[in-house]
Amino acid sequence: MPRGRYSLHDPHDHTPLAEEHFQCAPGPSGWRYVSRLTTPAGDHHGSVDLALDELGRPIRLELHAASWQVRAAAIDGVTWVRTDPTGVHATEGNARAHAFTGTSPAFLVAITRLLRLTPSAAATRVRLVAFTDPVLAPRTVDHSWALVKSEAHATDNGPLVVDEYQVTALDTGEQHTVHIAGDIVLAAPGIELEDLESPPSVFP
């Protein structure tokens, strides 16, 4: 069960945003990721709990940030309930989308599990509901994902296969690169892997 720590920063000016302390693992039903976030000063900042089924679909998502809360799942597209800090007002939402996204590295791994891309395949378009910080506001976005290459790197624990993806935001045309090994994000805009206590999980 990999566990470790990511640092999250603004991808444009590199302002530190949070530290994400996580653990994740494949299971009989798919994959689960849980994390807690702290501010650069060490204060509690939120949490992520994401579970995927064996096909990579989000069967449960729970996010907390700045006292806001989202509970969501893949139902009739994707469906969510967002609750305000007072707990009085809850709003429901639904979108004809494939999955969710946000600042957590968990979402990048989840998208790769859903798409199952191969290096020879054409870029695949995916519609996502993004929950944006700091109040988890939902926004529907269209991205294109392509697996550029997979390379095996020698390590003390055997070969580590690293997948390089090119991600394009279809509304702006902005492109960026994401490197993932198993269920660990090695590098992505705004994300740095700072600590990892055990090797990434290998999916069947």
Name the features:
globular; mainly beta; 204 residues
Plain-language structure description:
- This is Glycolipid-binding domain-containing protein.
- It comes from Streptomyces vinaceusdrappus.
- The protein is mainly beta and 204 residues long.
- It contains 1 helix and 15 strands.
- The protein has one helix at residues 105-115; strands at residues 3-9, 16-27, 30-38, 44-53, 58-65, 68-73, 78-83, 90-95, 99-101, 124-132, 137-153, 160-169, 175-181, 184-188, 191-196.
- Strands 8-7-6-5-4-3-2-1-15-14-13-12-11-10-9 form a 15-stranded mixed beta sheet, covered by helices on one side.
- β13 and β14 form a beta hairpin.
- The chain is globular, with a radius of gyration of 16 Å.
- The protein starts with a strand and ends in an 8-residue tail after the last strand.
- The mean pLDDT is 94.
Topology:
Blueprint: E1 3-9, E2 16-27, E3 30-38, E4 44-53, E5 58-65, E6 68-73, E7 78-83, E8 90-95, E9 99-101, H1 105-115, E10 124-132, E11 137-153, E12 160-169, E13 175-181, E14 184-188, E15 191-196
Parallel strand pairs: 9-10
Antiparallel strand pairs: 1-2, 1-15, 2-3, 3-4, 4-5, 5-6, 6-7, 7-8, 10-11, 11-12, 12-13, 13-14, 14-15
